[in-house]
Amino acid sequence: MKLARYGVPGKERPAVIDAEGLPRDVSGIIQDWSGSHLSDASMKGLAEINLSRLPAISPDTRIGSPIADPSKIICIGLNYVDHAKEAGLPIPAEPIVFLKGCRPTGPNDDVYLPRGSAKGDWEVELGIVIGKPGIYIPEASAKDHVLGYTLVNDLSEREYQMERGGQWTKGKSFPGFAPIGPFIATRDEIPNPEERSIWLEVNGHRYQDSSTSNLIFGIDKIVSYVSHFFQLEAGDIIATGTPPGVGLGIKPTPVFLKADDRIELGIDGLGHQRQKIYAWKE
User: What does residue 150 show for φ and ψ, rounded to 5 degrees?
Assistant: First the structure.
């Protein structure tokens, strides 16, 4: 099953995408994609509904984040060997964990760089969406807590992240720096999430082109590990790290985002995103 949300910001309606790719409005059945509506029991009930009887949503309608309001967006850093090398950092012995302190936005929403930003960057990532709360989750049962998977662009301001001291979080949390979606594919739709092509282009040039098979720490490890430090809640998103090809790592001269740039990114089976970059509006 593919779960999505459509409508103007703040007034999105939950939807299920039918077999023909048409979004069907389920707001008459559930309030939104959050909390208990993300459970296996809820998915089972929806699977029994004849979607053709539900109102269709025009494909031209804005796509919002597929999760209404996650309690947290947790990120894993340096989780591809080649990305660690291009960053000039050692391969981590344990997952590197940080947070994004901004709300998710739609997959195709415009992105504004911070005031005076000179080092905006991109990171295509596989996102894990939690469906069942848990803490101290064993690796063997980690996927029982996974609702499904989605596409994330972990946008960054590298000066804030790398040159201003403190934690990475402040380089990751500007408003609009978490485009998510276009949908969540439930885990039965993506039986092999660690065997998916993953890519990103800026202005038509492919900078990132890899596979989730190159993850250092896999999904079971990540979910279990993170649950030893956080109480995972339904709707939480874990971004699993980015492959090589970020702007910071381009040699000999890094490439950073500027106004009027266009980003396109995707993961096999999880759709794609498109964003236009703008300078901060005073």
Answer: -150, 175
Q: Give me the average pLDDT of each 10-residue run along the chain (282 residues).
A: 96 95 94 94 92 92 95 95 82 94 97 95 98 98 98 96 86 97 97 96 98 96 98 98 94 96 98 97 76
Q: Which residues pair with 202 in a beta bridge?
A: 205, 263
CATH numbers and ranges of domains, the chain: 65-278 (3.90.850.10)
Residue 140 is encoded by which pair of tokens?
Answer: 């063997």
Tell me the CA distances in angstroms from 82 to 12, 88, 153, 239, 264, one per residue in order: 38, 10, 18, 17, 21
Q: Print burial letters for 64-96: b (CB count within 10 Å at least 16), e (below 16).
A: bbbbbebbbbbbbbbbbeebbebeeeeebeebb
pTM for this structure? 0.96
Peptide bond into 9 cis (omega under 30): no
Look at residue 90 in the predicted model and tell me its pLDDT.
Answer: 85
